[in-house]
Write a structure and sequence with these properties.
The chain is α+β, with helices and mostly antiparallel strands. Helix 6 crosses helix 17, helix 6 crosses helix 18 and helix 10 packs antiparallel against helix 16. The chain is globular and about 95 Å long.
């Protein structure tokens, strides 16, 4: 019987695909890439001094890479070779993108098949998709392989040329990268804007009016009331937050328009005058409201929306999406296309009609054009797999947790993208109020303006359309207090019917002060969006980039916000001043477009790498550098002229101290040191900078405070009467703490005699000896304590922690109270509970501790459990009390042991107790949900192990010429 070998990337796909293809197909997994560029230190000794010695790439011979089979893949390669011997056809079914195409090419080079080879691609793992792919195989696309290889070599050249400069001038172990360095620069630039920001104060007025003039009917007055915002005074616009520059001054456009900058006194006077005035409607405008649904998900928009709505970072989003794809729930998750196939459009429209009604289906299918110039239209957007979508309810038994939530998000977005517009009407009313002083007072004692203009807007949705299924999230906006922002949040705000000239009653008017806010920090979602808008990076790179800048210590997370570290400031400054073109946004985007051109066969790989590394040279390139306007443009032109190699060779001397210094003001400088950032003044005094202090929070006043605290660093508090050790208070990078000073061990004659021998110890032995040295007790100060006032008694209390509260009478385990990184808590074995205050560490009793442990454990920041929505009485079958609760996925009925969701057709407020008992009985009769198990495949297939699935793209071309690369590759 003939056998056909199919090789996929991930072993998670093997079982499903084998089931779809049948017994004549043997499905195996490569487990991602099987070979790659080695580290230069891993090269054979004979090659380390040759042309491959620096990069594992011969830059003199057509940038030929030297590949080796990864050590952990040698067993996999041996298994694939064995399987290939028994096959008469080879199908390379790696992912449909550049990375997948490269894996397929490497497999062909290493396995050296003597049987027909076919390239098989699919973007979803369903029977229909796999069958279609089997009937529509193609040849390997050499241009996609070239683009992937060029990207790999480019990253190797940049990393290996630039990173050593960072090691020498900033800190060892740092890295520079084509995309990660640009992403870091974006975050640093935003923080610089926040550091330079100066707040401006301004005041506004809001008034409540009613169309009911009579004060008798209070209820009617309130029902027909609305709130309006002051927008003009004597026809001049009232300044809002967006009218101010980041230096706290009015913008030139606002000054030119004679905008009124209201302060507290003026705003209060205007509010009082409006309250006693006679308001009148001067304009009513009705406009139709229409809103279209968002396009289906691409990789970046999925990462952004999952971050906003599910609080999942890009790495987690891609990990979960990978599992959904490999198990046949969604299409391929690495794509920059918003296109849906004909089958997908039909499935979405059919489901809309079925679930929401025919009126929610637009007359024509919606077609979305990709915004990215390099979008691969051969791919689809991310959507539910199959020619008929499974609803979240239909997959709820197979998916749980993050997988279910992400699938639900993808399903909603896809279905909503083929739904009708949301429509309604937006009404805007303009009110004028004559401003008059209080009777008997002079005109000068009241407001200096004669007329106030106010507006109010309200939008009423008459047909929800796609909003019935899904509404796209939004990132935080800067000008939340402005009228424009308020208008966006005015949906379903109905204004009373009014006509021009109508008199109104002023119910209330209030002046309120505001402060302008700095530009918001990037979140991972908004940073991905910024990179995509600048066309920097590709769908498959964003998650890795977010992880890299975090893992390298370039950003910290404060909630969802990305806060750059001082290390990031130093690295970015070095790159801007010496490798400006490598962190220039336009230049980096142009490299992405060049890689797209290589993938399309419009650019030669070798010629492009030669220009990038060696430069263009010639008088034309030099002239372009001279004609360039701006430092970054000139730097980019210089790189084109001399190339990366020439740039590094002619780098010149870099002042490491200057690169690692940031001026704070008044002679105070922050320096990035080997062990973290610290402050230094003109006299040479130093102070530590707390790790949790964001750069924009380090003002001159804060710096002085840190210097004052540093003066108390090392203050002796006294002697511990028990140990006899001196207790001191110190200021560390992670906050103030107390510690004991251990005496130096006395050096005996024998120790003196062996000192010479100790100096010959290996590095490992030295570490062991250092670890064996006794460590002093240390304890962080409580938040209520201060470094300058902490006493010896308080320090001894802290050093005595953890405090044994008592023993659990049931288990006999000790219950301890202690202070941790996230606050005070109790611990019993492996179980822990948070305490409400730090003082409880020293006061909590055993009875109180046992009561705390008896409560259900909550996640940090989680609110206390909510009470039931309804109590239905005792279940006659179990004699347990039955209640309806509001759960994460909606209301459900429970007796404390069995849970059942309230059906959508039933109202939790009116469902009868008998119906609830019936639903619980049905659920109990079905028994517990069966756990999913993964059956082992045959012994032959069980050899596949880990999965590292890659990206998505494909084009048609001729077979690859392999002479140069095959000569420079190692297969065993």
């Amino acid at each position: 019987m003939s056998t056909k070998l199919v090789i996929v990337e991930s072993p998670n796909k093997v079982r499903s695909i084998a089931g779809y293809l049948g017994p004549e197909f043997d499905v195996e997994a490569s487990v991602g890439h099987i070979r790659d560029l080695p580290q230069p230190s891993e090269l054979p000794a004979t090659m380390k001094k040759g042309p491959y010695g620096k990069f594992a790439v011969d830059v003199e011979d057509a940038f030929t890479p030297y590949y080796v089979v990864n050590p952990d893949k040698k067993k996999t390669v041996a298994q694939l070779k064995k399987a290939l011997k028994e096959a008469d056809e080879l199908y390379l079914a790696t992912d449909d993108d550049r990375e997948g195409e490269a894996i397929a090419w490497h497999l062909q080079q290493v396995l050296k098949p003597k049987v027909p080879v076919r390239r098989m691609v699919f973007t979803e793992i369903t029977r229909e998709a796999v069958t279609r792919a089997l009937d529509n195989t193609r040849e390997l696309d050499i241009h996609l392989v070239d683009a992937q290889e060029t990207r790999r070599i480019l990253d190797r050249l940049v990393g290996y040329e630039v990173s050593p400069v960072l090691w020498r001038k900033v800190r060892a172990g740092l890295s520079a990268g084509r995309v990660q360095s640009v992403a870091t620069r974006l975050v640093v630039e935003r923080e610089r804007e926040r550091m330079a920001f100066r707040s401006a104060s301004y005041w506004g007025v809001e008034a409540t009016f009613s169309t009911v003039l009579s004060p008798v009917d209070v209820t009617a007055r309130q029902e027909d009331s609305f709130t309006a915002r002051l927008v003009t005074l004597d026809g001049r616009r009232v300044a809002t937050g967006r009218d101010f520059n980041d230096d706290g001054q009015l913008r030139p456009a606002a000054l030119k328009a004679s905008a009124v900058h209201l302060h507290q006194v003026g705003a209060t006077a205007v509010a009082e005058a409006i309250g006693r005035g006679e308001p009148r409607v001067v304009g009513v405008e009705d406009k139709p409201y229409k809103r279209r649904p968002a396009a289906p998900f691409t990789t970046s928009t999925l990462q952004q929306e999952a971050s906003r709505k599910l609080r999942m970072n890009p790495r987690e989003t891609m990990r979960v999406a990978q599992g959904l794809y490999e198990n046949g729930f969604i299409t391929y998750m690495r794509t920059d296309s918003t296109v849906l196939s004909g089958q997908a459009v039909a499935a979405a429209r059919s489901q809309v009609a079925e679930l929401y009604g025919a009126e929610y289906v637009p007359e024509r299918p919606r077609v979305y054009a990709s915004k990215s110039k390099g979008a691969q239209e051969a791919h689809e957007a991310i959507r539910p797999a199959g020619d008929h979508f499974r609803t979240p309810a239909q997959v709820s038994g197979k998916l749980s947790g993050a997988q279910f939530r992400l699938y639900e998000l993808i399903w909603k977005r896809t279905v909503a993208s083929q739904m009708a517009d949301a429509v309604g009407s937006t009404a805007t009313v303009t009110v004028e109020v004559p401003l008059t002083p209080v009777a008997g007072e002079s005109r000068d004692s009241g407001p200096t303006f004669s007329t106030a203009g106010l507006t109010a807007s309200g939008t009423v949705i008459t047909f929800r359309g796609f909003l019935a299924a899904y509404e796209e999230g939004r990132d935080a906006e800067r000008y939340q207090d402005d009228a424009g922002a308020a208008a966006k949040d005015s949906k379903d705000v109905r204004l009373p019917a009014m006509i021009s000239g109508q008199e109104l009653a002023a119910l209330d008017a209030e002046a309120s002060g505001h402060e302008t806010t700095p530009p918001p920090r990037y979140t991972e979602a908004s940073l991905v969006k910024a990179l995509e808008e600048r066309e920097i990076g590709r769908p498959s790179t964003y998650a890795a980039t977010m992880s890299t800048i975090s893992d390298r210590g370039y950003v910290d997370h404060r909630g969802q916000a990305l806060v750059p570290t001082w290390l990031a400031f130093a690295v970015t400054r070095l790159l801007e001043e010496n490798f400006a073109e490598l962190v220039d946004y336009d230049f980096t985007a142009s490299m992405e477009r060049d890689l797209d051109r290589i993938a399309a066969g419009e650019e030669d790989r070798v010629a492009w790498l030669r220009r990038f590394y060696n430069g263009q040279g010639g008088a034309g390139a030099e002239q372009a550098a001279q004609d360039a306007s701006g430092e970054l443009e000139a730097a980019a032109a210089a790189l084109r002229a001399q190339g990366l190699k020439g740039l590094v060779d002619n780098l010149g001397e870099i002042d490491a101290r200057a690169v690692n210094s940031i001026e704070i003001g008044e002679g105070i400088t922050l320096r990035v040191g080997r062990y973290g950032p610290y402050l230094e003044d003109a006299e040479g005094k130093r102070a530590n900078v707390p790790a949790d202090l964001a750069p924009d929070e380090l003002t001159v006043d804060k710096a002085r405070e840190l210097f004052t605290r540093a003066a108390d660093d090392g203050r002796e508090l006294g002697v511990d009467p028990v140990s006899g050790h001196v207790i001191i208070a110190k200021d560390g990078r992670y906050g103030p703490y107390v510690t004991e000073v251990l005496p130096e061990p006395e050096e005996t004659a024998e120790a003196e005699a062996t000192k010479t021998a100790k100096t010959a110890k290996s590095a490992k032995a030295k570490k062991t000896a250092k670890a064996a040295k006794p460590k002093p007790r240390t304890a962080s100060l409580l938040r209520s304590m201060d470094l300058s006032t902490v006493t010896l008694e308080q320090a001894l209390d802290l050093l005595s922690l953890p405090r044994v509260v008592g023993q659990d009478p049931e288990s006999g385990e000790d219950i301890t109270a202690q202070n941790g990184r996230y606050g005070p808590y109790l611990k019993k074995g492996t179980d822990s509970r948070s305490l409400e205050t730090e003082e409880q560490i020293f006061t909590v009793t055993l009875e109180q501790a046992l009561e705390i442990f008896a409560q259900p454990k909550r996640r940090r920041g989680q609110a206390a459990a909510r009470g039931p929505l309804r109590e239905l009485g005792q279940d006659p079958a179990t004699e347990k009390p039955v209640v309806i609760k509001d759960g994460r996925f909606g209301p459900y009925i429970t007796d404390g042991q069995t849970n059942v969701t309230v059906p959508r057709s039933e109202d939790p407020a009116t469902i009868s107790a008998e119906r609830a008992f019936e639903l619980l009985a049905d659920k109990r009769a079905k028994g517990p949900a069966k756990k999913r198990t993964t059956k082992k495949t045959t012994a032959k297939k069980a050899t596949t192990k880990k999965a590292t699935t890659k990206k998505a793209a494909a084009k048609k071309t001729t077979a690859k010429t392999t002479s140069s690369k095959a000569a420079a590759s190692k297969e065993d």
